[in-house]
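Section 5: illustrative case.
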């Protein structure tokens, strides 16, 4: 049962949620570590609730096209999934409520975006933009919990993360539905590395992280674009784990303990993906 719950919650992606919170919090100037822990806990519940809600809304689609998913396979009941989804979303919102008015407002917008995305993502080509909006709002919610609040750096990197997630989501949709892959999503995936290197290329740490993040994206999408390339095969799970590298770049390198934290989250995401599907 625990593995079923982990699959429903897509827990292999949680390290990317934590790295989002850490990077946005640092960009906003940081504050007390308990506030970072609180916003990270809230984000954990919101993400998990959103993933459960995704399966609840997609039950008819999954019965036709993904019968191995927990609900159509009988591993979990629809009632249980709905209950966990709503409980997690409420709990996550309450954690953010405890941080004050501004984090509560951003988290409320995030909850709304999660629900809208889960409800209509199978029915609109704009789903990648809705997915990216969720990560954008998460950055702003986490940044607002820090001492300095949302500033220009938080907004900039929230936008770069949104661009990356839009490209990633496009690959994921083509992987599941088939078709050809265009080049423009790959350009969005490289946008954070280009921006980071353009702004801070004089810093050795940023140079190394930026080149490393770009190299990881290149490995994940190599040979997967072009009019004659099939959709099956883009390493979507790898691109998801690569969100941690983007966050590390956003944080500007930092101290050795900070570098170890981001590296640990990246490796944890890859490790969890071996047992729990990321998509």
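Designed sequence:
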């Amino acid at each position: 049962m625990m593995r079923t719950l982990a699959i429903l919650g897509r827990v292999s992606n949680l390290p990317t949620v934590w790295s989002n919170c850490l990077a946005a919090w640092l960009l906003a100037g940081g504050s007390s570590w308990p506030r970072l822990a609180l916003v990270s806990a809230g984000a954990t519940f919101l993400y998990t609730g959103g993933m459960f809600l995704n399966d609840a809304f997609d039950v008819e689609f999954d019965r036709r096209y993904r019968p191995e998913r927990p609900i159509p396979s009988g591993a979990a009941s629809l009632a249980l999934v709905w209950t966990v989804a709503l409980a997690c979303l409420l709990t996550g919102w309450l954690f953010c409520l405890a941080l004050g008015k501004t984090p509560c407002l951003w988290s409320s917008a995030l909850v709304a975006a999660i629900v809208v995305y889960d409800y209509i993502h199978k029915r609109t080509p704009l789903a990648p933009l809705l997915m990216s909006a969720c990560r954008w709002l998460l950055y702003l919610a986490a940044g607002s919990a820090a001492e300095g609040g949302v500033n220009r750096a938080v907004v900039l990197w929230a936008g770069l993360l949104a661009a990356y997630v839009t490209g990633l989501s496009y690959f994921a949709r083509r992987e599941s539905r088939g078709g050809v892959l265009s080049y423009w999503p790959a350009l969005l995936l490289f946008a954070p590395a280009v921006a980071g290197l353009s702004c801070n290329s004089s810093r050795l740490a940023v140079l190394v992280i930026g080149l490393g993040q770009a190299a990881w994206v290149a490995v994940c999408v190599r040979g997967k674009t072009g009019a004659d390339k099939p959709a099956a095969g883009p390493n979507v799970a790898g691109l998801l784990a690569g969100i941690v590298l983007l966050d590390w770049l956003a944080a500007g390198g930092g101290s050795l303990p900070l570098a170890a934290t981001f590296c640990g989250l990246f490796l944890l995401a890859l490790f969890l993906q071996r047992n729990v599907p990321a998509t």
